[in-house]
Specification:
One of its GO terms (biological process) is pyrimidine nucleotide metabolic process. Pfam families: Cytidylate_kin. Belongs to the cytidylate kinase family. Type 1 subfamily. This protein has a single domain, classed as P-loop containing nucleotide triphosphate hydrolases (Rossmann fold). A five-stranded parallel β-sheet has the order 2-6-1-7-8, with helices on both faces. A three-stranded antiparallel β-sheet has the order 3-4-5, covered by helices on one side. The longest helix is centred in the middle third of the chain and has 16 residues. The chain is an alpha/beta fold. 38% of the residues are buried. α1 packs across α10. The structure holds adenosine-5'-diphosphate and cytidine-5'-diphosphate. Cytidine-5'-diphosphate (CDP) binds next to α1, α2, α5 and α9.
Length: 230
C-alpha cells in the first residue's frame, strides 16, 4: 500500500450527544490503532471548574471570558492514561462530577470561550506525534476539524444513553441523571448541531451494539475511508 499522500496526524473527528460512548469508544479506537486521543469536553469541563473555583458567576459572560486569562490548562493525548490539569491541580476526576455536568453548558455557550478552546484543540492536534489522533466532542466534524479525512457521528437512543450514564454513576439517582443529560443536550444543541450528521459525516448508531462492536464499527469506518491506516 502507498502512504505517500497521507497527511499526519491522521484526524478522526467524532461527535455525539452525552452518553453516546464518544469518550470510551474513541479512547479504545485510539489504543487499538496506536494513535492519540483528545477529549475536547474535558476542556469545557475544566474551564467550568476553574470559573467556579475562582468564584465567577457562570451567568456573567464577561467574567467567564476574563477567566480565560488565568486558565492554565493541560491535557495529554495518550489514550492509555491521560490526566487533566488546571494550574497545579489535577482535575481529572473532579470535572466528571455531576455538579460540573450541570453547569458546563453555561461556559460552552459563550462564543469567545469556544473560539479560544477551538484554537487550543487545533494546536494540540497539530502537535500530535503519533500517526493519527481521534478527537471527540460536539463540533469536531463541523467546526474544529471539518476537513478531517474521517468524520463520524456516534449516536444511541436517549433511553440507552441515559441508562449507560446512570450505570456509570453507580445506578444512583437514575431519574435525576437522565433529566440532567436531557437538559444538557438541549442546552448544547442551541449552540452546536450534534444530533444529526452534517454532509459527509458517517453515523454509527450504537443503540444495539455492545462496546466492542461499537469500537469495531468505528474502526471499520476508518478503514473503509482510508485504506492506508492499517
Ligand atoms: N456500545 C456500548 N455499549 C454499552 N456501553 C457503552 C457503549 N459505549 C459506551 N458505553 C458505556 O457508556 C458509558 C458512557 O460512555 P462515554 O464514553 O462516557 O460517553 P460520552 O463520552 O459520549 O458521554 C460508559 O460507561 C461506557 O463504558
Ligand atoms: N466539542 C465540544 C465538547 C464539549 N462541549 C461542552 O462540554 C460539555 C461536556 O462535554 P463531554 O464530552 O465531557 O460530555 P459527555 O458527553 O461526556 O457527558 C458538553 O455538555 C458541552 O457543553 C462543547 O460545547 N463542545
Amino acid at each position: 500500500m502507498n502512504n505517500v499522500d497521507v497527511v499526519y496526524p491522521f484526524v478522526v473527528a467524532l461527535d455525539g450527544p452525552a452518553g453516546s460512548g464518544k469518550s470510551s469508544v474513541s479512547k479504545q479506537v485510539a489504543r487499538e490503532l496506536g494513535w492519540g486521543f483528545l477529549d475536547t469536553g474535558a476542556a469545557y469541563r475544566a474551564l467550568a471548574w476553574h470559573a467556579e473555583a475562582s468564584g465567577v458567576d457562570l451567568d456573567d459572560e464577561a467574567s467567564v471570558i476574563a477567566c480565560l486569562d488565568s486558565f492554565d490548562y493541560g491535557i495529554g493525548t495518550d489514550p492509555a492514561g491521560y490526566r487533566v490539569r488546571v494550574g497545579g491541580t489535577d482535575v481529572t476526576e473532579a470535572i466528571r462530577d455531576p455538579g460540573i455536568s450541570a453547569v458546563v453548558s453555561r461556559v460552552a455557550r459563550v462564543p469567545d470561550v469556544r473560539r479560544h478552546l477551538i484554537e487550543l484543540f487545533r494546536s494540540i492536534i497539530a502537535a500530535e506525534h503519533r500517526g493519527g489522533i481521534v478527537v471527540e466532542g460536539r463540533d469536531i466534524t463541523t467546526v474544529v476539524a471539518p476537513d478531517a479525512p474521517v468524520r463520524i457521528l456516534l449516536t444511541a437512543s436517549e433511553e440507552v444513553r441515559m441508562s449507560r450514564r446512570a450505570a456509570e454513576l453507580g445506578g444512583r439517582d437514575a431519574a435525576a441523571t437522565g433529566a440532567q443529560l436531557r437538559a444538557r443536550d438541549e442546552a448544547d444543541s442551541k449552540v452546536v448541531e450534534f444530533m444529526t450528521a452534517a454532509d459527509g459525516v458517517t453515523t454509527v448508531d450504537s443503540s444495539d451494539l455492545d462496546f466492542d462492536a461499537t469500537v469495531a464499527a468505528v474502526i471499520g469506518v476508518i478503514r473503509d475511508s482510508q485504506p492506508v491506516t492499517g
